[in-house]
Amino acid sequence: MTEAEFLAALRQLPLHPGAHSLTDDTATLGRYILTTDTLVEGVHYLAGDRPADVAWKLLAQNLSDLAAKGATPVGVLLNYPLRGADDWDAAFLAGLATALTHFSTPLLGGDTVSLPPHAPRVLTLTAIGADAPAPPRSGARAGDALYVTGTIGDAGAGLAIALGKDGPAELLAAYRRPQPRLAEGQALGPHVHAMMDISDGLLIDAERMAAASDLAVTIDLAAIPLSPAYAAFAGTDRAARLAAATAGDDYQLLFAAPAERALPVPATCVGHFTHGTALTLKHGVQPLPLPGKLGFQHAS
Ligand SMILES: Nc1ncnc2c1ncn2[C@@H]1O[C@H](COP(=O)(O)OP(=O)(O)O)[C@@H](O)[C@H]1O
Ligand SMILES: Cc1ncc(C[n+]2csc(CCOP(=O)(O)OP(=O)(O)O)c2C)c(N)n1
Ligand SMILES: [Mg+2]
């Protein structure tokens, strides 16, 4: 089963009204916003990555979902696997302490288990937030512009560098130490129609926002914001832009807002919503066929 097929089947199970039909980044329970995300060794991070970086990424990936709803973190639950590697565990704990302090997010609890020797680590965190304006993924309106914060593609390039390519530390850091856009999310939350974070790739996540909103979306590859480091590493041609738009791990915010509305934080308009269905891609004025893969999907 692919991730999309599994999610479609989950949507047939008994769902809480706060599950938002499993089409949003977070669930809602009273004044709280809930999300959980897992890191799998070899799938989300490399076995040789530093434990402190893994701890950072685990927290950051979850807080990014809270950021997408404009929420303030309240606390987290940690599910942790011991594997008889005391040094790794100690370094993970030290890194987690740094990350929790950095994001002013205390630990609420969790669970600790043991793994068979040599089994890949699977680390899960559940994050709870509050005070969220919570713009849904499904709130985009025809005529809205599609915006992203920051730059796209840096983490994907960082993964290529972690796997052996030559490239700058800045791109590697984007892969290993993603920065959840909590302040931007809180500022944008009350002003936007729809918002989500980009974890799987700009194209696939924009398509999900359009589908949830029952709209079509057109993205202009030429408008995708690339960092100077990415441009120096990969170039700025169509292939480099497509790679940036489909790599994932960006943890930037993707949101829909009226095209003429002034925004409280810097962001780049990369497309527009219209009546209809599906994602359409162009490069400037030139229409482009969709690539085979719009982003990262598990078991695809
Ligand atoms: N195994 C699962 N059980 C229940 N709900 C799930 C599961 N996997 C994903 N979901 C739900 O499906 C929706 C989409 O999930 P996902 O794409 O992973 O969101 P995100 O990328 O923001 O983490 C969310 O509402 C999430 O809670
Ligand atoms: C070693 C390694 N290979 C590939 C990737 C790319 N990758 C793995 S999972 C993923 C998407 C984000 O993970 P997911 O579990 O889908 O998070 P969610 O969308 O649920 O927040 C990406 C881009 C990576 N981060 N690390
Ligand atoms: Mg998820």
Please explain how this structure is put together.
It is a single chain. With 300 residues, the protein is of the alpha+beta class. It has nine helices and twelve strands. Helix 2 packs parallel to helix 3 and helix 4 packs across helix 5 (169-176). The longest helix has 18 residues, at 51-68. The protein is globular and about 55 Å long. The model has no long low-confidence stretch (mean pLDDT 97).
Query: What is the CATH class of the largest domain?
Result: Alpha Beta
Ligands, ions, cofactors: adenosine-5'-diphosphate, thiamine diphosphate, magnesium ion
Spatial order of the strands forming the largest sheet:
7-9-6-10-8-11-12
| Gross morphology | globular
Our count of helices gives 9
Number of structural domains: 2
Distance between the termini: 8 Å
Which second-level CATH architecture of the largest domain applies? Alpha-Beta Complex
Largest sheet: 7 strands, mixed
CATH topology (fold) name of the largest domain: Phosphoribosyl-aminoimidazole Synthetase, Chain A, domain 2
Which superfamily, in CATH terms, is the homologous superfamily of the largest domain?
A: PurM-like C-terminal domain
User: Which spans of ≥5 residues are poorly predicted at pLDDT below 50?
Assistant: none
**β-strand amount:** 25-35%
Helix content: 25-40%
Average pLDDT rating: 97
Order of helices and strands: HEEHEHEEEHHHEHEHHEEEE
Radius of gyration: 19 Å
Count of DSSP strands: 12
